[in-house]
Amino acid sequence: MQIRRLAGWLALSAALPVAAQESTPAMVAAAEKEGKVVWYSSVDVKVGEQIAKAFKEQYPKIEVDVERSGSERVLQRINQEYQANIKNVDVVNSSDASHFLFWKQQGWLAKHTPPDAQKFAPQYRDPDGTYFTWRATLDCMAYNTNLVKEGEAPKSYAELLDPKWKGKLVKAHPSYSGTSLTGTYALVKVLGWDYFEKLSKTGIQQLQSTTAPPKTLASGERAVMVDGNEYNIFIEMAAKSPVRPIYASEGTPFVSSPTAVFAGAPHPNAARLFQNFLYSAKAQQLLVDVGGQRSVHPDVKEPAGRTPLKDIKLLPDDATGMLPQIADIKKKYTALFGN
Amino acid sequence: MALLLAALVLLPLYWLLDTSLRDAGKAFTLANYDQLFHDPGFVKPLVTTLWTSAAVGILCLVAAAPMAYLVARTDLPLKRSFRVLVLASFVTPPFLGAFAWVLLGGPNAGILNQWYYGLLGLKPFEAQPLINIFSAWGMVFVMALYTFPYVFTFVANSLDMIPSELEEASAIFGAAPWRTAMNVTLPLVMPALLAGFIIAFLQSMTLFGVPAILALPAGVDTMTTKIWSLFQFPPQPGLAAAASLPLLLVTVLLLRTQAGIMGRRGYSIVGGKSTGMRTIRLGAWKIPALGLFGFVLACSVVLPYGVLLRTAFLKNWAAPMAGNFSIEHWKFVFLEFSQTRLAFTNTFILGATAATAGTILAVTIGYLALRKLVWGHRYLAFLATAPVAIPGIVLAVGLFIAYTRPPFVLYGTLVIIFLAYVTKELPVGYQQVASSLKAVHPELEEAGRIFGATRLRTLVDITAPLIRNGVIATWLLIFIGSIRELSATILLFTAKTKTISVTMFDLRESNDWGPIAVLSVTMLAITFAMVAAINYFTDRRSS
C-alpha cells in the first residue's frame, strides 16, 4: 500500500512538468530596474549579439552583456569566478552539456522553466527544470568548393587519412570548445584513439573554437574541415562563401547546447526574462534562420536547403557518459595535437 | 616606501616559489619539478622556447646591426623616415603584428601568398607557399620584426658614442670601408651587439601572443602558451609556478651577463659624444642598403598596417577588394559588440591609474635614490629595476597565487591587473625619471637650500619644473606599455575586468578577423597619438 502510494506519487510528479514561470509585468518591471543581464555564451559572437539585439528591441531598458568564449573557457571562467566568490554571470550557454550536470551538482543553477521549453521533448529538458536545450548543432565535416570538386570531397572520416589531404585539414580543439569535445567523445567511440593518432600526423591546422574552422575554410586557407560548427557553415553559405557541409558515413556528432539561469545571478529577474526570451518561438526562429542552428522547439520551421536531421546519420551526445572522461580526452588530445 | 616596493615585487615571487614546492595537500614536494623536467609535454616547449628565442636574437643581429651602422655612419638617404618607422615597429604590440601576419602569410589564403601564386601561375595546396606563417619559423620571423628595434637602438647608440677617429685612421691606412667596419668598428660595438642579442632573446622568450597566434595552430607549444594552458579549469598553479621558474632563472642569468658585458665596455674610447662623425659614402651600395631597410620596415610596419586597414574595411578579408568594401566591422565593434565599451573603459582606467601610480613611484624612488636621501637608497633603486627580470606571464602567475588567497583577495578586480602593470612598467618609468633627474644638477637645488628654502620647497619650485616634461613622458610611456599588455592580463582578467587586448585574443579564437582589424587600427591610432605627445614633451625639454 505504502509502496504503491509512493509509486503513484512518483508517476504523478514525473508526468507533471515543472511549473513554468511566465514573463509577468512584475518580472519585466523588476528586470528593467536591474537594467542589465550578463550572458556567458559559447555561441558565435555575431549570432549572440543578434539575439541580444532582438531582446533589446523587445525590452529597450535592459542591456545585454554578451561574454563570448569557447564552452570549456566559459566553464573555466565561471568556476574560477565562483571559487573567488565572484558572482557575475546571470545566464549561461555552453555546448558541453556535461557542464550543466556539474553546475547543478554544485547547486549553482536556479530552477526556472521558460514557458516554451515545456513544449520540448523530454530529452531536451532537465527533469528538475534547471536547464534546457536552447540550440543544437552538428559538429560536422565540410569542404571549400573552390578547392575541392564536389565529386572529390571526402565522404568519411576514414578517407581523411589519405595522403592527398595532408596539409589541407583544419579542426577545432576539445580543450576550448564544448562542441569539439562532444564531437571528439562521440568519434572516439566510433573510430578509436588510434584514428586520432593517425589524424594528428596529417599536418592539421589546429584552431580553438568550432566557430573558427568554417571561417578558415571560407577564406580558402584550408580545403577540408574535420571538426567545426554546422551553423557557421550555414552562415557562410548564406554569405555566398564557397563552402558545403559533409555528413560523414560514420555519422556526425549531434551537440545540444543548453542554457540555464544561475541561482546567484546578480540580476535575477532580468536573467529569467532573458531565459524566457531565449526559448520563445521568435528567438528560436531567429537562431535557426540567421544563426544556422537546429532548434528542438516544435513550432520552429527549418529553412529550405538544409538537410533535415532525420536524413543525417547522427552520433547522439551523452553528457552523463562523457563527464567522467573529459579530463582524459583533453589530455590525450593535447598530447597528440598540442594546445 | 621600501616596504611597499618589497611587497609589490617580492610577495608574488615568494608565493611562486612556495606554491611550486607544494602538492594539492600543501605538503612539501618536488613532484612539480620532476614533471617539468621529465614530461615531454614540458621538455619540448622548453626546448622550442630556447631555440626560437636564440634564432630571434641572431636574426635581429643580422638585420639590425647593419641597419644601425648604416644610419650612424653612412650617407644613407631617408635616415629620418627610417628612424620614425623603426620607432613605429617598436611601439607596435607584437600580437598585432602576429594578427597581421596571419592575414599576410597564411600559406594558402594569406595576401602575400595569393600574390605569389597569382604571379607565378601556381595553385595553393599544389605548390609550396612563399611563406608559411603557421610554424615555429613563422613565429621567429614575426618576433624578430618587433624585437629588432631593441638591437637597432642599442647598436646605434653605441655607435654614436664611439668617435669615428679610429675608423678614419683605418681608412687613412688604406683599409676598404667594409674592412674598417669588420676590424675596427665591429670589435668596438661587440658589447652592444651581445647586449642587444640578450634583450632580443629575453623579449621573445616572454611573449605570449605571437606563439599563441602563430605556433599553436601548427601544434607547437612554447613555455608561455604551456603556462597559460595550465590555467584551464581546474587551474594547476603549482605546476605553472614550477614552469615559470626556468623563465625567471634564464632572465636573471642573462641580465647579469649583460650587465657584466656593458660594465666592461669602457675601453677609454667609448664615452661622450665626439665632435664630428665622418660619414662613409655608400655609392652603389645605397641600393642594397635601401633594400635592407625597405624589406625590414615593409615587413614590420608597412605591410602589417596595410593589411589591418584593408581587413577592417572589407567584408571578406581573403577576397579581392573590388565590390567587397564594407564598414560592417566598424558598426559591429562600436555599435553592436557589447564588450567594446567595457574593454575600452577598463583599458583606459588601467592605463591611466597604472601610469599615474607608476610615475609617482618612479619619481619618489628616483628622487630619494639619486639624491641619496634615505638609508638603503641603493636597495630602493634595485627593487625599482628588479621587475625587469620578471617576465609578464611569470609575474601574473605570482600575482594570481598571491592575491587569490586571504588576506588579499584581489582576483576579479581591476586592482590585481593594476598591480601587474605598475610592477611591470616600474623599471621603464624609473629609468626615464632617473635620466631626467640626472640632468638636473644638484647645485640648482643646493642654491635653493642656501637661500633658506626647505627641501620640499626646492623640490616644488626648482626640480619639479625642470623635470616636468620628463615626468609627463614617463606617464605616457607607462600608459602605452599598459594598454598593449597581453601576457600578464591573459591570466588575471575576468569577464568584468577584460581589456582590449584580451578581447582581441578572444576574437582570435573564433577567427573574427574583421573586428580584430578594427580594434587593431584603433589601438594603433591611440598609441601613435601618445607617441606624438611624448615627442612633443621630450623635444620641449631639450630646447
Task: Provide the fold topology.
The complex is a heterodimer of chains A (339) and B (543).
Chain A: H1 2-15, H2 25-34, E1 36-41, H3 45-58, E2 63-68, H4 71-83, E3 91-93, H5 98-105, E4 131-144, E5 169-171, H6 178-199, E6 205-206, H7 212-219, E7 224-229, H8 230-238, E8 243-246, E9 252-261, H9 268-279, H10 281-289, E10 314-315, H11 319-322, H12 326-337
Parallel strand pairs in A: 1-2, 1-3, 5-6, 5-7, 9-10
Antiparallel strand pairs in A: 3-9, 4-7, 4-8, 4-9
Helix pairs in contact in A: 2-9, 6-12, 7-8
Chain B: H1 2-20, H2 31-38, H3 40-73, H4 79-91, H5 94-105, H6 111-120, H7 136-161, H8 165-172, H9 177-206, H10 209-214, H11 223-229, H12 237-263, H13 286-312, H14 328-336, H15 339-370, H16 377-385, H17 392-402, E1 404-405, E2 408-409, H18 414-439, H19 442-450, H20 455-483, H21 489-492, H22 500-509, H23 513-542
Antiparallel strand pairs in B: 1-2
Helix pairs in contact in B: 1-12, 1-16, 1-17, 2-3, 2-12, 3-7, 3-9, 4-7, 4-13, 5-7, 5-13, 5-23, 7-9, 8-9, 9-12, 11-12, 12-17, 13-23, 14-23, 15-16, 15-18, 15-20, 17-18, 18-20, 19-20, 20-23, 22-23
Main β sheet profile of chain B: 2 strands, antiparallel
CATH fold topology of the largest domain in chain A: D-Maltodextrin-Binding Protein, domain 2
Largest sheet of chain A: 10 strands, mixed
Helix/strand-derived category of chain A reads alpha/beta
CATH fold-type name of the largest domain in chain B:
MetI-like fold
- Rg result of chain B: 25 Å
Can you name the CATH architecture of the largest domain in chain B? Orthogonal Bundle
Total number of domains of chain A: 2
The percent range for helix content of chain A is 25-40%
Number of extended strands of chain B? 2
CATH class of the largest domain in chain B: Mainly Alpha
Broad shape of chain B: globular
How many individual β-strands of chain A? 10
Order of strands in the sheet with the most strands of chain B?
Answer: 1-2
Which pair of chains forms the biggest interface, and how many residues does each contribute?
A-B, 60 and 48 residues
Within CATH, the superfamily of the largest domain in chain B carries the name MetI-like
Mean pLDDT of chain A: 93
The CATH architecture category of the largest domain in chain A equals: 3-Layer(aba) Sandwich
**SSE order of chain B:** HHHHHHHHHHHHHHHHHEEHHHHHH
The residue ranges of chain B in which pLDDT falls below 50 over 5 or more consecutive positions are 265-273
